[in-house]
Amino acid sequence: MIATISKALPGFFAASDTPAASGASVISGRRDASTAGTAAESAHSAVLYTDGVCVSYGDHQALRDTSLAFDKGSITALIGPSGCGKSTYLRCLNLMNREIPGCTIEGEIYYRGSNINTPDVDLYELRRSIGMVFQQPNPFPKTIYENIAFAPRCHGERDRSVLDQLIEESLRGAALWDEVKDKLHKSALALSGGQQQRLCIARALALKPDVILLDEPCSALDPISTLAIEELMHGIAEGRAIIIVTHNMEQATRVSDRTAFFYMGEMIETGETTQIFNAPKSERLNDYLSGRFS
Ligand SMILES: Nc1ncnc2c1ncn2[C@@H]1O[C@H](COP(=O)(O)OP(=O)(O)OP(=O)(O)O)[C@@H](O)[C@H]1O
């Protein structure tokens, strides 16, 4: 397994190759004197990391100097009050912000060791490797089967038996197979909201991404559907990095092993989720967790 991953990522270490990474991911903090060493170590083991990322919408700076790293096998929660830059940061990671007129992204974003924040990056290929699931389930108005087959076909997969297998694997990965295996050729729009969101996760899985970005994936769902999504998170994190924006602190503690706290466009504190919630170091994070502001 280790050999396979290392081979797939030449010049890069898999999370499981590094002595420091025993299960939980390594993630860097802000690049000040106390975390500089950690940042350098983290970058070497990460499949994706950012170095000094700043984002502006026109002349409004929404995110400042953000450096974080994400390992395969890790789930990182991005938390913080509304408008502090969590989604802006998430959207940088596969350059979705480039679709927003007037938005500029500065700094470096390394995926598999190369800076992707360059004008000539292949966005189509990038978003195949770094998939995204949005707040509102957004299935295509097509059948369940076609929802998942669409992107692999666009990427050249035409073999029906390969597609059939991919669809089953992806639906199983998203814990949806048993519920839909007898209606694969029915409209995806007839599924419940929670099922639609799991279909969107299956759709992302079908491209076998290294990273999945989830922007408040449960905010439109009922508690049972939310639990279903949370339960499948650890399964989908196997062999890839998961980064989730959430306003639900219980959800962050249930699903993530790393957490990063954002406040007013800055990443203030990051660490293991247990440390962040049980022993926050910064006063702002402590105030946020105590409900002094939301
Ligand atoms: N498309 C956009 N155009 C202009 N400004 C934007 C855009 N998206 C976000 N912003 C601004 O950037 C800042 C950060 O917003 P962002 O959505 O990243 O915060 P957030 O922490 O994800 O908030 P929430 O938790 O409410 O979703 C805010 O001031 C917001 O108004």
Automatic annotation (TrEMBL):
Q: Do you know which Pfam families this protein is assigned to?
A: ABC_tran (PF00005)
Give start and end of each ABC transporter domain: 48-289
Which InterPro entries does the UniProt record give? AAA+_ATPase, ABC_transporter-like_ATP-bd, ABC_transporter-like_CS, P-loop_NTPase, PstB-like
What would be an example GO MF term here?
ATP binding
Keywords annotated in UniProt: ATP-binding, Nucleotide-binding, Translocase, Transport
Signal peptide (UniProt feature, chain positions) = none
- Which SUPFAM superfamilies did the record assign? P-loop containing nucleoside triphosphate hydrolases
What is the protein name given in its UniProt record?
Phosphate ABC transporter ATP-binding protein PstB
Gene label: pstB
